[in-house]
Design brief:
Number of helices: 0
Radius of gyration: 20 Å
Number of strands: 13
Shape: globular
Helix content: under 10%
Order of helices and strands: EEEEEEEEEEEEE
Strand content: over 45%
Length: about 180
């Protein structure tokens, strides 16, 4: 309950990880958010992929009222179709398991369509940037440091297939692990 008396309810599914134990012998488990209920907004539910090759469950779909949703697909080793772009991802590549694209119902018939595509450029130290394209081919580039902390966002305008940067936001972080 918040200071103004409103209450948000979070429902979770508890999943025990087979064979995974803590040092004290107790079993490890994971909590997966399944539903959020708020008094001033309709409920939102979450669905997960049963399991992925890396031993975890990934968010697959966020459901909203009236049949609206946001589905997420992830990069896997091998060939990946990213909305018409073919990307071959090696087995130990840092893109494996990252978000590849997202779909949502659009148009008068609520047909499922790609609304976001993600392309990663990761350096050996873990720093790099991610290009995120929306359904209209708008581009936002997210830069992150070797601790995967966001350090900059660049926004681009598209005209005739050419992108021009029109805005940048920057963040500065203290040393890794510091509070400043």
């Amino acid at each position: 309950t918040s200071s103004d008396g409103r209450r948000v309810a979070y429902d979770y599914e508890v999943v025990h990880k087979p064979g995974a134990h803590r040092d004290d012998g107790t079993r490890r488990h994971a909590y997966y958010l399944t539903k959020v209920t708020r008094p001033e907004a309709p409920p939102v539910t979450y669905q997960y992929l049963a399991s992925d090759p890396w031993g975890s469950r990934r968010l697959w779909r966020r459901n909203y009222p009236d049949g609206r949703y946001l589905e997420t697909e992830y990069y896997i080793p091998g060939p990946n179709d990213v909305g018409g772009s073919s990307i071959n991802v090696p087995m130990n590549d840092p893109r494996v398991g990252r978000v590849k694209l997202q779909r949502a119902p659009v148009g008068p018939n609520d047909a499922s369509a790609i609304v976001y595509r993600f392309f990663y450029n990761v350096n050996a130290d873990g720093s790099g940037y991610t290009d995120a394209y929306d359904a209209n081919c708008g581009l936002v580039r997210y830069y992150y440091d070797s601790s995967t902390r966001l350090v900059a966002i660049e926004r681009f305008l598209s005209e005739g297939g050419k992108y021009t940067r029109y805005g940048t936001e920057r963040w500065q972080w203290g040393a890794s692990g510091s509070a400043h």
